[in-house]
């Protein structure tokens, strides 16, 4: 990675959906309302590789939209659950 730090994804999400370290980083970057170029930059890969990581996350989680992922991660890190 290029020295840019992405936010942390709750360990429960990583374990539940069996996210790889790159998948976890891609998801964390996406959580900051980033797009493909930002995810690619954080991962140090092309846009195409970033899309592959994100497709894998959507497949693993069953989420259909970025907002679904954000709600899922926010719910997992909420102290009010």
CATH class value = Mainly Alpha
What is the number of strand segments? Answer: 0
Low-confidence stretches are none
Per CATH, the architecture is Orthogonal Bundle
Share in helix:
55-70%
Give the mean pLDDT. 85
Major β-sheet, in short? none
Task: Spell out the helices and strands N to C.
Answer: HHHHH
Form type: globular
Q: And the CATH topology? A: Arc Repressor Mutant, subunit A
Counting DSSP H or I runs of 4 or more residues, the number of helices is: 5
Q: CATH homologous superfamily - what is it?
A: Winged helix-like DNA-binding domain superfamily/Winged helix DNA-binding domain
Domain unit count: 1
Using only C-alpha atoms, the radius of gyration works out to: 12 Å
In percent, how much strand structure appears in the residues? under 5%
This entry's quaternary arrangement is single chain
What class do helices, strands and sheet pairing give? mainly alpha
């Amino acid at each position: 990675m290029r020295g840019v730090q992405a936010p942390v994804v709750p360990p429960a999400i990583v374990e539940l959906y069996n996210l790889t370290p790159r998948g976890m980083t891609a998801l964390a970057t996406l959580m900051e309302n980033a797009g493909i170029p930002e995810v690619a930059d954080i991962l140090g890969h092309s846009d195409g590789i970033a899309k592959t990581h994100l497709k894998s996350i959507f497949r693993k989680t069953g989420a259909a939209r970025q907002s679904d992922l954000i709600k899922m991660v926010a719910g997992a890190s909420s102290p009010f659950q």
